[in-house]
Amino acid sequence: EQVVVSGVAYDKKQARITIHGVPDRPGIAALLFTAIANENIVVDMIVQNISIEGTITDISFTVPKTDISKAMEVSKKIAKELKAAEVLLNEDIAKISVVGVGMRTHSGVAAKIFKILSENNINIMMISTSEIKVSCIVDLKYTELAVRVLHDAFELNKI
Amino acid sequence: EQVVVSGVAYDKKQARITIHGVPDRPGIAALLFTAIANENIVVDMIVQNISIEGTITDISFTVPKTDISKAMEVSKKIAKELKAAEVLLNEDIAKISVVGVGMRTHSGVAAKIFKILSENNINIMMISTSEIKVSCIVDLKYTELAVRVLHDAFELNKI
Ligand SMILES: C[C@@H](O)[C@H](N)C(=O)O
Ligand SMILES: C[C@@H](O)[C@H](N)C(=O)O
Q1: What values do phi and psi take at B49, rounded to 5?
Q2: In this predicted model, what pLDDT tens digit does every residue of A91-124 receive, in sequence order?
Q3: Best of B40, B50, B92, B131 to mutate (most A CBs within 10 Å, chain A)
């Protein structure tokens, strides 16, 4: 299947919240996101990696910057309930997404995206992918640079 | 925007590899996935959360079970190069995905998915979401149960 990267999108209006050190047992994700949903907070990205020793892990999610205080209030309350280590906030982020078809069959596309960003000294804070999209969270200040270098790399300026 | 969950999919043919303790600086993701791509290994999901103190983080990704030995060989080589703590493999996983439209605007859908799984004692090992899909990695043995209870919860049996 031919890989076709069709676009690069960015979102500068999100903030990232991480609950660090949540127990890795059933019910935790449900507890957190039910509380968030009950405040009518829109969640864009949710990223959770494995717990290394089967005990604790981190859950990160992004919300609109306008919902930060409500989301932090909920998160801190849940974190306390779960005896999580801490709640971390980063407002200075951008979500950079590269969209395409056939991206799954070519891990070379993800590698190319990561390479372009690294060549421009842009650190990748979070990664989340699907068959049609690779999303990276980077520092807000690199938004325009990231979009431009990816656009150029995938020749999206030429129609 | 009305949320419509249109389907539940599962993939039992993936295995998960995690490189635990990689440096969080530009070039790391590129190095790993370029090496993986050079072996023509198809990567489905990539999940990376933030580094808590800005130093080290974990990168997880899934590959077809048929590519495990090649992928582990590459991963161990890269991990050694990066002085990462360890490389972890889990073959007994299933990716459960709930697909829909309008899911982003309703964090209640993700919460419901997590709730259904937890009510059935299914631990969620990894989470990765996009606007149209919530993907959870669970233990392989729960595949059929997870699909059935999600199907029922979202009334996908009735046409
Ligand atoms: C960490 C969190 O995802 C937990 N494993 C749960 O199932 O809710
Ligand atoms: C950890 C890894 O993603 C690293 N931050 C990079 O940019 O390559």
Answers
A1: -95, 175
A2: 999 999 999 887 766 668 999 999 999 999 999 9
A3: B50
